[in-house]
Amino acid sequence: MSAEASNDNIRYPRRVFIRRHSVVTRLTHWLNVLCLSFLLLSGLQIFNAHPELYWGHYGADGDPAVLTIGANDAAEPSGFVRVAGVQIPTTGVLGLSNVDGEPTARAFPSWATIPSFQDLAAGRRWHFFFAWLFVINGIVYLGFSALSGHFRRDLAPTARELSPSHLGREVLDHARLRFPKGEEAKHYNALQKLTYLAVMLILLPLMVLTGLTMSPGVDAAFPALVDIFGGRQSARTIHFITASALVIFVIVHVAMVVLSGTWNNIRSMITGRYAIHEEGPNA
To 5 degrees, how large is the angle CA 72–CA 78–CA 81? Predict the structure, then answer.
């Protein structure tokens, strides 16, 4: 029987499975999920020890802060967030928490930190352990992606994809929740490629470098880092901003996973199998 004849017996549209993610990509992805979760929760614990951000070489109590999360000392205390002199009340969310039935000044609540009680030393131990695990995991992923051709084949956008008309169409499709189907679903779109590259090559390295800059030991070995970021306090502020940007990225990423097919996306990141619908050769 000829190939043409056998193809005539195939009914369209049909669902087929493709191999979307390699074993290394899947393992490093889930390890990143673990590391980033603990880094965020322990990082908020560290921030609670001094819930203010500065710029330059300032950083002591009384110095002008870029951002402050705290509570006032009134008879009925209230929480607030102050950014560049503008104060926003945040009682019950940030700045003031209920601890054992008592209102307590605390930037982030106990459920958002590791450990739940205030302990800077424990928070730093959790943070440093998962920070180094995260860095090692990232090196493994980057090395694999470069050697296997994953970067060139799957993540590098083409000139056509970078054209304003193509990017504009993808932005509109995303805004209308129109996700790629068929052949287009086999590959990352341009917005995904640009976002993933920005996170991997800009956001994460910046977060790692600013984290290292806050270490006195690293500063002693590489004093140029402090100059690059304009001071350890500037590095701390940038570290906080990059971490916040990463949280926003994760929220958007999870939303897109849910909206474009929760189980299909999760299955592809667990087993590597991703289902697409083929419309047929004449569709």
Answer: 75
Pairing of strands 86-89, 95-99: unpaired
CB-based contacts of 33, cutoff 8 Å, min separation 6: none
Virtual torsion, Cα 146, 148, 149, 154, nearest 10 deg: -100
Residue-level pLDDT, tens digit, the chain, 283 residues: 454 545 556 666 677 888 888 999 999 999 999 999 999 999 999 999 999 999 988 776 677 899 999 998 777 888 999 998 899 999 888 998 877 778 888 999 999 999 998 899 999 999 999 999 999 999 999 999 999 998 888 899 999 999 999 999 999 988 888 888 777 878 888 999 999 999 999 999 999 999 999 988 888 888 899 999 998 999 999 999 999 999 999 999 999 999 988 999 999 999 988 888 766 665 5
SS3 19: strand
Cα(21)–Cα(25) distance, integer angstroms: 6
Ramachandran region, residue 28 (left: φ > 0; alpha: ψ -120 to 50; beta: rest): alpha
Unique residue bearing structure tokens 């039935």: 101
Q: Is the pTM of this model over 0.90?
A: no
**Phi, psi (deg, nearest 5) at residue 223:** -65, -20
Name residue, tokens 């929480």. Answer: 79
Long-range contacts, 93-97 (Cβ 8 Å, 24+): 94/69, 95/69, 95/70, 95/71, 96/71
